[in-house]
Amino acid sequence: MNNKIYIFDTTLRDGEQVPGCQLTTNEKVIIAKELELLGVDVIEAGFPISSPGDFESVIQISKAVSAPTICALTRAREGDIDVAVDSLKYAKNKRIHTGIGASDFHILHKFNSNRAEVLQRGVEAVKYAKKFVEDIEFYAEDAGRADNQFLAQMVEAVIAAGATVVNIPDTNGYCLPDEYGAKIKYLFENVKNIHKAIISVHCHNDLGLATANSLAGVINGARQIECTINGIGERAGNTSLEEVVMAIKTHQEMGVYTEINTKRIYPLSRKVSSMMRMPVQPNKAIVGKNAFAHSSGIHQDGMIKNKKNYEIMEPEDVGVSESSIILTARSGRAALKYRLELLGYTIDKDQLEIKYEEFLKLADAKKDNVNDKDLRALMGEGVENRGIFLEELEVTCGYKIQPKAKVTLKVNGQNQTVISEGNGPVDAALKSVKTILKDESTLEEFLVQTITEGHNDFGKVHMTVKQGNNTLYGFSANTDIVLASVEAYLDAINKVY
Ligand code: KIV
Ligand code: ZN
C-alpha cells in the first residue's frame, strides 16, 4: 500500500460554514494560495450550488491555484453536479465530491427513504459526475453511525460506478478511535474492489476525538485525511490539519508521511484565525499561544538543560520562532537566571538567591507574567523613563467627518504629540503613534473580541506587529476600542523598547 497520506483541506468549505467565519472570495483566494504553498493535495473550495458566492469562489480559486486538486461539493443530485462541473471549468486538476447519507438514521429521518434507494441514488450520482470529471470522491454521510455491512455494500457499489476516492465521514463526531479504526478495517476486509480507490477519513470533533479517529483510520488503511486549519468547522469543528500532520511527522514508526511544508503551519494558522475572526485557544495543540511556552519551575529547569525534556517537536518545525520561558510565581531559579542572562545580567549563586526571593514576591503580587521591564527593575535599573507611554489620546470621527486622532506619547521621558487623519479612528490613532515613533512595522494581525454582547462591553484587542525580524504580540482590553487598539500596539512595541 502507498504510504503517502493525502491532505484534503476543507477550511474553505466545512470550515467556512461556521457562523461568523464567512470569507469574501478574495480572502478565500488568499488562503487557497497559502494552502498551495503549505503543500496540501486537495483544496475543497466550496459547495457551488449553495450560493453565487460559493460558485464564484470555486471559479477564482481554480484560476489562482494550480498544484492542488480543486474539489467542489455536491449532494447526490444532477443539478448540483452540473453547477459544480461549471464552477470547476478553470481548474487544472479537478474533483467532484458527491454523496448521500449512509446511516439508517439519516436514511429515514433526513431522506425519508430506504437503504436500497439511497444506494441507488449514490451510484447514479457517481455515474453522472463521471461523465464530466474523472476524479470523483463519494461521501457516505454519517458513516460513523452506519451499519458496517450496508456501508461496505455502498462503498463497493460506488467504486464500481467510478468513484476514485471514498470518504467515510464521522459526521457527528460520534465514534471512539477503536470503533472508527475497526470500521475502516472492516471495509478493507469486506469490499472486494477497495484497492481501486483511496479511502478518506473525515472526522468531526464533537467528543474531542477527531484527530485520534483520523489517525485510527490511517493505521487501518485510509490514505486521505480531510481536515481544516485550526480545526475549524461545524459545531466542535473538524480534524485539525496541524495536529494530524505533526502526529504523523512525530510518529515515524507509523510508516506514513505527508507532503506538507510544516514550517508554514503557524503563519497560516494566524492568518486563518484573523481572517475568519476565530481566535485560537491558547492551549491549542501545535498552534496555540502556549503550545511552546513553559511556565512551571520543574519544566523550565528541564527545558534549560535540554529542550527535548519537554518538547516532542521543534517549534521551528511548525514555523514558531522559538519556545518561550514564561516567568511566573511557579518558575524556578534556573529560569530566572536564564532570562536575566538573556537581558545581559551576570549573576552569581548568592545574588541569585536574593533576587529569587524578590522575584517570587513580585510574581505573587503581580499575579501575572514577570516581564523584562520588571526584571530590570528587580536588578535596580531605573525604569520609570524607559519605554513608550500613552499620555493623551483625542479622537474625532463621525458621519461625513474625516477621522482624526491626536496622540501624545512619552518616549524615554520626553513628550511628543502628532495629529493624523485616517480611514477610521483606529487607523488615525495608529498613524499618529507610528509617526511619533518613526516606526515602520506592519500590522500582521488585528483581532477585536467582545466579552459579553452589550454595547457597553469591553473590547479585547489582540495584535501581531512585524518589526524587522521580530513578530511582537500585543494585547489590551478597554470599553474604548480605539484606546484598546493603541494600548495593544504599544504593548507589542514596548517588547523591543
Ligand atoms: O461531515 C460530513 O459528513 C461532511 C460531508 C458533506 C462530507 O462534511
Ligand atoms: Zn464535515
What does this structure look like?
With 497 residues, this protein is of the alpha/beta class. The protein has helices at residues 11-15, 25-38, 52-64, 78-87, 104-109, 115-130, 148-160, 177-190, 210-219, 241-250, 265-275, 297-305, 333-342, 349-366, 372-378, 425-437, 481-493, and strands spanning 6-9, 42-46, 69-73, 94-101, 136-141, 165-170, 198-203, 224-227, 293-294, 324-325, 388-398, 401-411, 414-421, 442-450, 459-467, 470-478. It is built from 17 helices and 16 strands. The protein has an 8-stranded parallel beta barrel with strand order 1-2-3-4-5-6-7-8, surrounded by 6 helices. The protein has a 3-stranded antiparallel β-sheet with strand order 11-12-13. Helix 2 packs parallel to helix 3, helix 2 (25-38) runs antiparallel to helix 11 and helix 16 packs parallel to helix 17 (481-493). The longest helix has 18 residues, at 349-366. It is globular and about 80 Å long. The model has no long low-confidence stretch (mean pLDDT 91). The structure holds 3-methyl-2-oxobutanoic acid and zinc ion. Residues 14, 139, 141, 167, 169, 171, 202, 204 line the site of 3-methyl-2-oxobutanoic acid.
